[in-house]
Amino acid sequence: GDSVTQMEGPVTLSEEAFLTINCTYTATGYPSLFWYVQYPGEGLQLLLKATKADDKGSNKGFEATYRKETTSFHLEKGSVQVSDSAVYFCALSDTGANSKLTFGKGITLSVRP
Amino acid sequence: KAGVTQTPRYLIKTRGQQVTLSCSPISGHRSVSWYQQTPGQGLQFLFEYFSETQRNKGNFPGRFSGRQFSNSRSEMNVSTLELGDSALYLCASSWGTSGLTEQFFGPGTRLTVL
Q1: How far apart are CA A92 and CA A102, in angstroms?
Q2: In chain B, how many H helices and how many E strands?
Q3: Distance CA A55, CA B83 (A)
Q4: Residue A113 in contact with residue A15, Cβ under 8 Å?
Q5: Do residue B33 and residue A106 have CB atoms under 8 angstroms apart?
Q6: Which of B33, B96, B105 is closest, CB to CB, to A43?
């Protein structure tokens, strides 16, 4: 079945540092790929998405490129802020007629001032 | 536009009891999905409803059930609660059922089973 693997956490960075969070997936067909963020005490918010190979999703300075050849969707940000501290989830969905999301384990990011 | 709302936000039950959680989707959204979030298992898909019909179901025992009403509001029920059912239950809504449509999540219901 479909699966998503994220790098182990937690990750602690200083403000303005470069961020990379690795995500690889296993799926049949051509899934859509997503990054969700969860702030303390809240539900998940969609951060960015990509629906086909070589698409780049971007939002709030975060970027991720859908790499079919390496089955990856790594999240990057050039300069993190304290307000980026949260849990980040990589996810995929089958582009067929259901919207079930398969999530990675999530990784906690803490950014120090 | 109001977001997805879930009630109650917190719930404490004892083993063997049953519980019902409620989700009101964003106005106009007809698809509602439910997820269980635990520290050990992460986020796991429970089921999806569209136009009052269950479209998809995750790998959970029959104690977990759900339904959707004609106004798209959804409820999930867990019977004969076990300690392992303690989790954050998240509801998500979208206008359609395709994997391409964006899902919007509610804040969740935190269930504690004692």
Answers
A1: 5
A2: 0, 11
A3: 43
A4: yes
A5: no
A6: B105
Interface membership of B54 toward A (CB under 8 Å): no
Pairing of strands B109-113, B10-13: parallel
3-state secondary structure of B82: coil
Band the pLDDT of B1: cuts 50, 70, 90.
low
Joined tokens for residue A104: 């990675």
Q: A97–B45: do the CB atoms touch at under 8 Å?
A: no
The predicted model gives B26-36 an average pLDDT of: 94
Partner residue opposite B42 with nearest CB, options A93, A99, A103:
A103
Residue B69 confidence (pLDDT): 97
A65 neighbors B4 (Cβ within 8 angstroms): no
pLDDT tens for residues A23-57?
Answer: 999 998 889 999 999 998 888 999 999 999 999 99
> Can you tell me the mean pLDDT for A7-36?
93
At residue B2, the pLDDT reads 79
Q: How far is B26 from chain A (nearest CA, A)?
A: 14
Q: Tell me the average pLDDT of chain A.
A: 93
- CA-to-CA dists, residue B81 to B20, B26, B78, B91, angstroms: 11, 29, 6, 19
Q: Which residues of B touch A104 (CB under 8 A)?
A: 42
Q: Which residues does B3 contact at the CB level (< 8 Å), separation at least 6?
A: B26, B104, B106
